[in-house]
C-alpha cells in the first residue's frame, strides 16, 4: 500500500498509544470492527477521509494531524493557491487535496478530489459517515450513488446530501473527474 497510507496508520497508532487504549478499545470508540482497525494501523487498508474525520472528531483533534502530521496554525484565514494544497492519495484512483489544512477549528473540511477512471464493471465502494457533504464537479463527469439512487453529475453540477446515507462515486467516460468536496 502507499507510503502515505502507512504514515497515516502510524499516526493513528501514535494517537492510540498516547491515549493508552488497546486496539479493541480504540476500535470500539471509533465505531470500527477490530480487524478493520488493525488493518488501518498497519497501513494495509485504504482508509477513507470520512473515517479519518470520524476518528479526529471522536478525539477532538484536527483532521490534518491524522492526514498530514501537521497541526493547523491559522485562525483568521488560510489561503491555498491553485495546485498547492497538501495532498494524499488514498489509492492510485483517489487523490484528496486539502484546501483548508492550515485553518484551526474549522467547521468543514474542503477537498479537491480527483478520481481516476476504472473499468466499467468495477463495483462502487460505498461509504457512510456522520454529517453532511457537498460535491461540485469541476472537470469531467461522475456517477454518484446515494442510498441506492444513481445520479450523473456533469461539470458545474453540485449536490448536497446527508452523508450518513451509503454513497459512492466513480468517474465516467474513461476520464478522470475533479470535484470540490466539502465534508461537514
UniProtKB/TrEMBL annotation:
Assigned keywords, A-Z: DNA-binding
The record's annotation in PROSITE patterns points to: HTH_CROC1 (PS50943)
Which SMART domains does the annotation name?
HTH_XRE (SM00530)
> What InterPro entries would the database entry show?
Cro/C1-type_HTH, Cupin_2, Lambda_DNA-bd_dom_sf, RmlC-like_jellyroll, RmlC_Cupin_sf, TransReg_Diox_bact_type
Q: Which domain of life is it from?
A: Bacteria
Question: HTH cro/C1-type domain spans which residues?
Answer: 12-66
Q: What is the lineage of its organism?
A: Bacteria, Pseudomonadati, Bacteroidota, Bacteroidia, Bacteroidales
Q: Which residues form a coiled coil?
A: none
A matching Pfam family = HTH_3
Protein name, entry field:
Helix-turn-helix transcriptional regulator
Amino acid at each position: 500500500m502507499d507510503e502515505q497510507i502507512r504514515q497515516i496508520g502510524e499516526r493513528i497508532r501514535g494517537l492510540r498509544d498516547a491515549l493508552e487504549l488497546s486496539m479493541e478499545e480504540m476500535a470500539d470508540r471509533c465505531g470500527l470492527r477490530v480487524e478493520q482497525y488493525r488493518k488501518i494501523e498497519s497501513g494495509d487498508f485504504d482508509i477513507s477521509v470520512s473515517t479519518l474525520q470520524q476518528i479526529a472528531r471522536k478525539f477532538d483533534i484536527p483532521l490534518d494531524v491524522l492526514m498530514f502530521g501537521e497541526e493547523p496554525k491559522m485562525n483568521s484565514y488560510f489561503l491555498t493557491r491553485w495546485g498547492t494544497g497538501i495532498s494524499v492519495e488514498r489509492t492510485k484512483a483517489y487523490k484528496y487535496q486539502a484546501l483548508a489544512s492550515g485553518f484551526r477549528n474549522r467547521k468543514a473540511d474542503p477537498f479537491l478530489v480527483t478520481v481516476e477512471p476504472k473499468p466499467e464493471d468495477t463495483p462502487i465502494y460505498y461509504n457512510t459517515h456522520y454529517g453532511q457533504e457537498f460535491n461540485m464537479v469541476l472537470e469531467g463527469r461522475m456517477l454518484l450513488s446515494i442510498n441506492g439512487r444513481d445520479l450523473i453529475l456533469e461539470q458545474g453540477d453540485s449536490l448536497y446530501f446527508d452523508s450518513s446515507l451509503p454513497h459512492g462515486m466513480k468517474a465516467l467516460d474513461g476520464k478522470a473527474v475533479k470535484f470540490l468536496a466539502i465534508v461537514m
